Give the backbone structure.
Amino acid sequence: MTNYMYSASVPVFQQMLDSLDQLLAKAEAHVEARKLDPQALLQARLYPDMFPLLRQVQIACDFAKGVSGRLAGAEQPVFDDSETSFADLRALVARTLDFLGGLEPAAFEGSDTREIVLRPGTPKERKLAGQAYLLSYGLPQFFFHATTAYALLRHSGVEIGKRDFMGSY
């Protein structure tokens, strides 16, 4: 039997990151076909105080690897967030998927009650049981950034829809 904490995290992140990779591929094709400056999309924001597309993708990847890694008790790879192109972002998604693919379901045993400490040693430190961390914090954060990336691309005229967002399931 597969651990439910694994099932509720890694496969969900993998599905949505696969989708995000395809969205980025369509965005890159959109830019090339219309001879647009790629930075116009990579730096697109829905509002001036929001992160641009580039950062939304980076944060989505950070949450996918961070949440999964913490729950599995695995050392997480450090990505330097130096991406500047669609190719760079797609490589980041691929590295994140590689990390997730290496996590074993057995590593998630007991992670529902494992204490997860957010922002340790700071005034914003917060302790959550693994299940609350995944369901009430990690997944909502990940989906916020993945959805915002989708919305930025859609708003910018990339021909994508809900099926593209959902990916293969």
About this structure: The chain has one domain: 4-166. The chain has a mean pLDDT of 96.
